Amino acid sequence: MAIAINLRSDHFSAAEIEGLWDQVAAFEEVPSMHALGYRPHVTFAIYESPEIDVDTAWNAMREAAQGGAALEVQFSRIRWFSHPQFVLWAEPAMNETLFRWHASIAAAIDPAHCRPHYRPGAWVPHCTLGTRIMDGRRDDAIAFARSFDRRFTVVFDVIDCVVFPPVQIVAERKLA
């Protein structure tokens, strides 16, 4: 079972991301994001190492966000990862707080215990829109991403720690 630490949106503004989940689901055999039963989020780290437990991960997340308020994150682009699987995601505008919190977590827990894509120098802040894009729909998904021309803001108002699969919240704190 993996452990992830995240910044989550329980705010009504998350409907913008959830609407994109619905649009991206057209490129998936089975809609991936609603199936998680989990809100829109930005993941800072995923640990599968036996040396890292929930308490260690949660303490690192709490310390990183100590005194932090809910974050307004702006989005205006949809991008994709093509390896190891094809994933569409919303790209946050540059946000120093996200990078500061990520650096704090990496300072608290040796990044060697973290999945490679979440380590310093490799981590790309993102809000996932779809993880099961069908091979035959990749070109359509890329065209959708390239044609996206809206700007919106989502308030991320909760930090949490989850275990998965399936996603289970094991610790959370509302941000002021």
UniProtKB/TrEMBL annotation:
Family annotation (InterPro entries): Cyclic_Pdiesterase
Matching Pfam families: 2_5_RNA_ligase2
GO molecular function: ligase activity
Organism superkingdom: Bacteria
Keywords noted in UniProt: Ligase
Cited Gene3D superfamilies: Cyclic phosphodiesterase
Protein's name in the database: 2'-5' RNA ligase family protein
